[in-house]
Design a protein that fits this description.
This protein is α+β, with helices and mostly antiparallel strands and 726 residues long. Among the domains are: 268 residues, 7-stranded beta/alpha barrel, CATH 3.20.110; 211 residues, Beta-galactosidase, Chain A, domain 5. Helix content is 32%, strand content 28%. The protein has 22 helices and 26 strands. Helix 2 packs across helix 3 and helix 16 runs parallel beside helix 18. The radius of gyration is 28 Å and the shape is elongated. The two termini are 54 Å apart.
Length: 726
């Protein structure tokens, strides 16, 4: 019998750059391998399959037999491999040339390794803008899948979404399939018969209907409770059995087969969009909560099904507004991409530049650039993996363009596209970015030797899901359910850890407190700030000598109603791994009585491990890096991470107090709500006593010693690679 409905099963298997090896391995054992084992027993079933580049490279290295097996199923016509940008960047966050380059690079890799021609593409996170059509088609792609939410946002009705459409930009045509949100929630969570019944209804209403399920392969074993549900309780077998039993009217086809044999339903232009949940996560928190409240108020209204298609969420690019940390990564990536593109035009075959391009592409992996039901930007190991590759690309570019092995430079530019200049200070050992217009802060500090940005922390801010944490809501009956429907606390008393920062968790943050301020008040955010320097604009000037550069930052402001002047200078010399930082306070009244603190935040140095610890100036251990430390009358503090091979020392010319504490976020991941160590806040502080001229000054040395990493690299290179990749 001629089939009267077509079902396309498109699985998207992905692990991000920088994810832990054990996570790759567990997902392979729980999802990727068992799915293929069950699938292989049903020869009449076909699927389309997208495996992201980071996961594909891991499989090629650790499970090559799996890829050989995959290649054999491709040759049998059972599996159609879907391509896309190699390292899973969202196309809205990378330049046009990188979009085309990433797609073409992955197409070639898949052809070489699996012997298959790629025609279709997976759109990372289904983030779509109409102008992408041109780049995608120019990269060799013929068709793709987006969510039905895109099509509904363009005005199409449910009964118009059982096929594919053509879309166009500058004369390029691309076929676009709507993926079913309904099936995303029923597969694999509802009984297989629910999918059969849904497809039968479509077939009866419109013979020849095409429905696409396009979603994460990790739903089949890796998501919470799904391994038992999908395999031990035989959901997947029963699903394939049901599809096979209804093969007389329901054909399970690949995207390519439908594209080749079914005509398009028409032409459509889709608005800037993503899947529904993503558009909601992109909203400001207050509007996100308002939308959620509105939905709950109206969902039982008989008019709701008519209203819902017209609801729109936010725009994906605004994640860079919502999270300054995402914007910083994006700006860093764009700066490198522009420089690399210019260098390649003059030297396209240069091996060092091609290596830099590979690092750039890996540094564009999307996962830590946004946040929703998954860890995203709150997962430190993913953020640091991005920076590791961006720092490597930056270093390769510098080595290509500079004949000297030791050098130093500084220049001002609007690096983060906010209309105001930032200052980049760099040498052969490090890169530092300063933001004069927001307190003269040091917001990025890259250590080239180990590819670590010590400034890649997180500022704690409200999230919509914090309402559930503060209310103690718990919703998990142990049954298998969508991640979007689970509320699970991975630790107790998380509500006590929901805190919001009054200023960015960056370094060189200039703070004035009352004289009796203590660690507990600062850590909790209850300490009263009596100065206005921490977020105000500073005047900036760069002084450059052949062997060193100095950035001068100064402003007048008020402290407890008194007008004073603060000047700070940051000096870097060629070949040096030390930032020299000098402070001078002027116009202080004779009886000035305030505590002056300079806050530093050091990210990428995890707490809770005995080989990552504080030391005093004499080398005495003071506890692991998740400890609270409060020292009096000291000249400095050290933070040592033996695993990564870095020793960070802060030394002060004027002894004072130092307090240090962990900065932790309560954030959401696929496993539930959890407390995550983001950075170590270190605050040297002094009770300022002005001299007879109303002045006070201090000099600090901030040093990053990576000799241990260098020694380990010389003896056990594979070990060093492992520690810098995590």
């Amino acid at each position: 019998m001629t089939p009267t409905a077509h079902l396309v099963l498109l699985l998207h298997n992905h692990q991000p750059i920088g994810n832990f090896d054990h996570v790759f391995r567990q997902a392979y054992e729980d999802s990727y391998r068992p799915f293929l084992e069950v699938f292989a027993r049903f020869p009449q079933i076909k699927i389309s399959l997208h495996i992201s580049g980071p996961l594909m490279e891991w499989l090629d290295q650790h499970q090559p037999g799996y890829l050989d097996w995959l290649a054999s199923l491709i040759r049998e016509g059972r599996i159609e491999v879907i391509g896309g940008p190699f390292y899973e960047p969202i196309l809205a966050m990378i330049p046009s040339g990188d979009r085309i380059g990433q797609i073409r690079r992955y197409t070639k890799w898949l052809r070489d390794r699996l012997g298959t021609e790629v025609r279709g593409m997976w759109f990372p996170e289904r983030v779509w803008e109409q102008s992408f059509t041109r780049d995608v088609v120019d990269a060799g792609i013929e068709y793709t899948v987006l969510d039905d939410h895109h099509f509904k946002s363009a005005g199409l009705r449910d009964d118009e979404l059982d096929g594919y459409y053509l879309t166009e930009d500058e004369g390029r045509l691309l076929a676009v399939f709507p993926g079913s949100e309904r099936l995303r929630y029923t597969i694999p969570f509802a009984d297989p018969q629910a999918t059969i019944d849904h497809m039968r209804g479509l077939a009866e209403r419109r013979p020849g209907a095409v429905v696409v399920f396009g979603d994460d392969g990790e739903k089949f074993g890796t998501w919470p409770e799904t391994k038992k549900h999908v395999y031990q309780d035989r959901w997947l077998e029963r699903f394939f059995e049901a599809l096979s039993a209804n093969a007389d009217w329901l054909r399970v086809a690949t995207l390519g087969e439908v594209y080749d044999h079914a005509p398009p339903r028409g032409k459509v232009y889709l608005p800037d969009c993503s899947y529904r949940e993503m558009t909601e996560w992109a909203l400001p928190v207050a509007r996100q909560l308002e939308l959620d409240t509105l939905r709950h108020e109206l969902e039982h209204d008989p008019r709701w099904h008519r209203i819902q298609p017209f609801l729109r969420g936010g725009f994906w690019r605004n994640f860079r507004v919502k999270y300054r940390e995402a914007d910083e990564m994006y700006a860093r990536m764009m700066h490198i991409s522009r420089r690399l593109q210019a260098a390649l035009q003059g030297d396209p075959a240069n091996a060092r530049l091609r290596e830099a391009q590979l690092h750039l592409y890996r540094g564009q992996c999307n996962c830590p650039y946004w946040h929703g039901a998954f860890g995203g930007i709150y997962l430190p190991h993913l953020r640091h993996a991005i920076y590791r590759h961006l720092i490597a690309a930056d270093t390769a570019l510098e080595e290509h363009s500079r004949p000297s092995q030791v050098w130093v430079t500084a220049h001002a530019e609007d690096f983060n596209f906010d209309g105001k200049p930032e200052v980049r200070v760099a040498n052969d050992q490090m890169v530092a970015f300063l933001s004069p217009h927001e307190g003269g802060i040091l917001y990025e500090w890259d250590i080239r030797e180990i590819g670590l940005n010590l400034g890649a922390g997180i500022t704690r801010r409200p999230e919509a899901y914090h309402q559930k944490v503060l209310q103690g809501e718990h919703r998990d009956n142990g049954n298998c359910a969508s991640i979007h429907d689970r509320v699970v606390f991975k630790q107790a008393n998380l509500d006590r850890h929901v805190r919001y920062d009054p200023y960015p968790r960056k370094s060189l943050m200039d703070l004035f407190f009352n004289p009796d301020t203590i660690l507990a008040a600062v850590e909790s955010g209850e300490a009263v700030l009596v100065g206005d320097f921490h977020a105000a604009p500073y005047e900036a000037a760069i002084h450059a000598n052949p062997d060193r550069v100095r950035v001068m930052l100064s402003r007048e402001g008020t402290v407890s109603g008194q007008t004073i002047r603060l000047t700070k200078a940051v000096l870097l010399s060629e070949g040096s791994s030390i930032l020299e930082i000098a402070y001078r306070l002027e116009n202080l009244p004779p009886h000035f009585a305030c505590q002056f603190a300079v806050e530093f935040n050091f990210a990428g140095l995890p707490g809770g491990a005995e080989d990552r610890y504080f030391v005093d100036p004499f080398g005495k251990r003071l506890g692991h890096l998740g400890s609270r430390v409060e020292l009096c009358n000291t000249a400095g503090l050290g933070l040592i991470d033996q695993w990564q091979g870095i020793d960070v020392r802060l030394l002060m010319s004027v002894p004072g107090g130092i307090r240090a504490f962990p900065v932790e976020t309560v954030s959401q991941s696929e496993g539930g709500f959890e407390l995550v160590h983001q950075s170590v806040a270190v605050q040297p502080h002094w009770l300022v006593r002005p001299d007879e001229n109303g002045q006070w000054s201090v000099t600090m040395r901030l040093a990053a010693d990576t000799s241990l990493a260098r020694e380990r690299r010389a003896t056990t290179p594979e070990l060093v690679h492992a520690c810098t990749s995590g």
